[in-house]
Amino acid sequence: MVASSLKLQELIQEIREAKTQAQEREVIQKECAHIRASFRDGDPLHSHRQLAKLLYAHMLGYPAHFGQMECLKLIASPRFTDKRVGYLGAMLLLDERQDAHLLITNSIKNDLSQGIEAVQGLALCTLSAMGSAEMCRDLAPEVEKLLLQPSAYVRKKAVLTAVHMIRKVPELSDIFLPPCAQLLHERHHGVLLGTVTLITELCERSPAALKHFRKVVPQLVHTLRTLVVTGCSTEHSVSGVSDPFLQVQILRLLRILGRNHEESSETMNDLLAQVATNTDASRNAGSAVLFETVLTIMDIRSAAGLRVLAVNILGRFLLNSDRNIRYVALTSLLKLVQSDHSAVQRHRPTVVECLQEPDASLSRRALELSLALVNSSNVRTMTQELQGFLESCPPDLRADCASGILLAAERFAPTKRWHIDTILRVLTTAGTYVRDDAVANLIQLIGGAQELHAYSVRRLYSALAEDISQQPLVQVAAWCIGEYGDLLLEGTCEETEPLQVEEDMVLTLLERVLQSHMSLPATRGYALTALMKLSTRLHGDNNRICQVMSIYGSCQDVELQQRAVEYNALFRKYDHLRAAVLEKMPLVERGGPQVNEEAKESKEVAQLSEAAPVPTETQASKLLDLLDLLDGPSENAQHPPPLDPTPGDTLIHLLDLPCAPLPSAPIPNLKVYEREGLQLTLSFVRPPGTPTLLLITVTATNTSGGDVTHFICQVAVPKSFQLQLQAPSGDTVPAQGGLPMTQLLRILNPNKAPLRLKLRLTYDHFGQSVQEIFEVNNLPVETWQ
């Protein structure tokens, strides 16, 4: 049976000649049967050949687990041909999840102790490929001895194995510290590259190693300067760049050693400037070295001039024909725009040109960077460029572009008229893509600019007459026409072109909005209210308006029907009150973010005091077990009783907030989280009449250049507390200091125990998903005493 077995070359040829998958499976199954029989018979001369065929079948995706024990036998064999195939089989068929891999530990140890370089190399390769934590602990002394072997081949393999060991078992770092200092003087390219990689792993995982290797910064600087100035062997040069792989690895190590360390940073400043100026960026190898140099400059405590040089290198990358290099440059500049804003501003024209890139990822990164570069001095120019991009950008970028323009205009608008014109143009161009709060913000802006009421209503009327498909624009226009329709008919505005408007024209336009199939129910509600308000602004007969209200009194939409019925009642029963009810809205003062935040918090407290929903016991238990992030209380701690909706229960009175004013001495706010411009602040309110109840308002603000989207804040408390989370104000935290996102927490503390919170934040920022879990133990004592 074994005699009829195929040779490896014959097996490969038969598999390639198979015309169907079934024929291939038949060949593999037949040969695997021969291989099993050979393993059972224990043929020592042909075992390595049978295992080689089995490994080929494994590479094609067929099961080969029955060859694991044969690998162990071949590794223990004294013949090199057997060991070679056995170690290869161990690397392919064994891993940490199988206990069989521990059986080769002794064989590897014996092979490492031999003086045969080829056998030592096989053992080291296998250990670095599939060595588990237990194997690494057992074999670390043998690998440490081989680091100083005379053979460069063995030293290189040993260094790479040490890298694997450090990644598996970081506590082994002390064993490899002494040999690394000697290996840095190595002239062999492979050994030196592996040594720098090993030191990098040690410094990333051990503070003691980081402190130890800061002493070798001058030596690393000398090695890198030699590579840049005199070069190394031409064998390792790539496109005219001397050993770029070693240069990149040394730069990464220097970045780790110089981070937050003034002396080390000062030592490498001159070298980084030399690398940045002498490296040719026309080829990918040079660009890789330059990019790593830029990252190192930005991560250490480098001089201001050197940071400007790094930004200029990224600016040159933007002119590169390679899209990957341009994408890397845009991403890096976006990270630097907060710390080196003025240096990045110099490359604004090039960034704006990147908006027209056909590649969607490039144009998105260019858009994010362009929005981050907007400030009070360039807001007019940048907004004009962004509006031009908005007209031709892909649909998947319109929402981000429109939101970014609106936020920039709100933050840096030079005049109210310019602000209104900018928002109107965005609504006209991409009204269906704007954020939900754009309508309310524009209404608030127009309402607070009394001198621009006539100008705004005429602009909006003209825009509405041209296009009624952009729903946010239609809503704002309908509100403005209803509020300031008398100014539209007067025609006294000198800032716009002469526009003759008749009452019938205005009514016809609003009726057209009501009848359009593109109008949303909310838009029709705006139009109905506008018609009702015009009944007191216009001087003609109101019969036409009454007819419209009568028609919508039987509308299928409940909201529109209720609104129309109420307006009909004003006409029929309370006509004497109609003028007073439909008066113009008072001027709206646009306060700062703090004013808005306090007003929002007061409003939420007032709403909770009117009618606070009492959760059932099941809901309360779910809230208590939220995320299961906090441990339970001690055995002596008393659990609060479940919330019972019966009137006699005292907990109901604890949750009923009185209408008394807030305490005179407010509890100070607490900032609990900050990362890349996103800040999370907690503000506290304790109602005077309910000392066991604490209201916490979580406020998220974003000063970075990109929106924080899909933001979710989850909170857990110890089981001796009761927690109720209210719905957040949204899931997006706008960029550039836009309107903050808030969420209210109600915490009942019947035992007045010290309060601690555990928060889990999940959100998307700059195209990356972020998840943070942290505990807050430093809450003010006023929150629980």
From TrEMBL:
PROSITE patterns: GAE
Region of interest: Disordered: 592-616
Protein's membrane topology: Peripheral membrane protein
UniProt key word Transport: yes
One cellular-component annotation, GO: AP-1 adaptor complex
Pfam families listed in its UniProt record: Adaptin_N (PF01602), Alpha_adaptinC2 (PF02883)
Annotated GO biological process: intracellular protein transport; vesicle-mediated transport
Subcellular compartments: Cytoplasmic vesicle membrane; Endomembrane system; Golgi apparatus
Coiled-coil positions: 1-28
Signal as UniProt keyword: no
UniProt keyword terms in alphabetical order: Coiled coil, Cytoplasmic vesicle, Golgi apparatus, Membrane, Protein transport, Transport
Domain GAE intervals: 665-780
PANTHER family: ADAPTIN, ALPHA/GAMMA/EPSILON
Family to which this protein belongs: Belongs to the adaptor complexes large subunit family.
Protein name: AP-1 complex subunit gamma
Gene source species: Muntiacus reevesi (Reeves' muntjac)
Lineage: Eukaryota, Metazoa, Chordata, Craniata, Vertebrata
